Amino acid sequence: MTSAKRIVSWPFVLGWGVTFLMALPVLWMTLAAFKTEAQAIATPPVLLFEPTLENFAAVLRRANYPSYFLNSVIIAGGSTLLGIVVGLPAAYAFAFFPGKRTKDILVWMLSTKMMPAVGVLVPIYLLSRTLGLLDSAIALLIINMLINLPIIVWMLFTYFREIPGEIIEAARMDGAKPRHQFFFLLIPLAAPGIASTALLSFILAWNEAFWSINLTSWRAAPLTAFIASFSSPEGLFWAKLSAASLMAIGPIVVFGWLTQRHLVRGLTFGAVK
């Protein structure tokens, strides 16, 4: 097959087509952020226009962006750290001390991800109100940790299972106790997997919107609530909403771009032996 035929082959076209469809909303949002409100809602869409920064200035005048950004960092970072601290021992126990119900427990944990969040909104809201945790970073930190914990445990469990059993046996023969094996052997060996798990958990927590909108008002509101604040009963201000969205996703996109090598390395950890 010639190179020209290879370029126009259907997998190539399909791959670029899917990529374009996935990137189209982000491209539309980015362009709308630099348009006026009239241009943003114009039909057909205005493709040639003079960019303006007025939307970003209006967003910064209306909302305290640094406060929302700091809340997102605290909630996403805190929930990720707590999830790793809880998930590491659990994955270690499942991987190296399995019982009769280990697989059932793992499947049950993963099945909780299939439950719609709105189904438990009322009890979690009432529980947060009773404990005085409404509009607090602690409530969102714990909820985000619990939401991502099944994925964290499953990923860490997979990475631990990829570690050759001979290494563990050698450590046991040398007199290493389970805690020494865990801290000084398994964690260093699974470091790429732990890093990728933490990165994925951070990204998922950063993008969580449902609980942020329903459990916060302003004090602990992260950037997802910051975006939602630019809708109104009279309608949506598309240009300003796009600018706010771009300011919210910009940091996590840059973060993902800078850490993509570590993320891919961790996700493919143990894939080739």
CATH architecture assignment name of the domain at 64-229: Orthogonal Bundle
CATH uppermost class of the domain at 64-229: Mainly Alpha
Beta-strand residue percentage: under 5%
Largest sheet: 2 strands, antiparallel
**Mean pLDDT figure:** 87
Q: Over all CA atoms, what is the radius of gyration? A: 23 Å
Helicity level, as a percent range?
Answer: over 70%
Q: Low-confidence spans: pLDDT under 50, at least 5 residues?
A: none
- Counting H and I runs of at least 4 residues, what is the number of helices? 15
Order of helices and strands: HHHHHHHHHHHHHEEHH
Structural class: mainly alpha
Strand order of the largest sheet: 1-2
Can you say what the CATH homologous superfamily of the domain at 64-229 is? MetI-like
Which characteristics define this entry?
mainly alpha; 2 strands; 273 residues; MetI-like fold; globular; two-stranded antiparallel ribbon
Describe this structure in words.
By secondary structure, the chain is mostly helical. The protein has a domain at 64-229: MetI-like fold (Orthogonal Bundle), CATH 1.10.3720.10. It is built from 15 helices and two strands. It has helices spanning 3-7, 10-33, 37-40, 54-62, 65-96, 102-111, 121-130, 137-161, 165-173, 178-189, 191-207, 210-215, 223-228, 238-258, 260-267; strands spanning 231-232, 235-236. Strands 1-2 form a two-stranded antiparallel ribbon. β1 (231-232) and β2 (235-236) form a beta hairpin. α11 crosses α15. The radius of gyration is 23 Å and the shape is globular. The chain starts with a helix and ends in a 6-residue tail after the last helix.
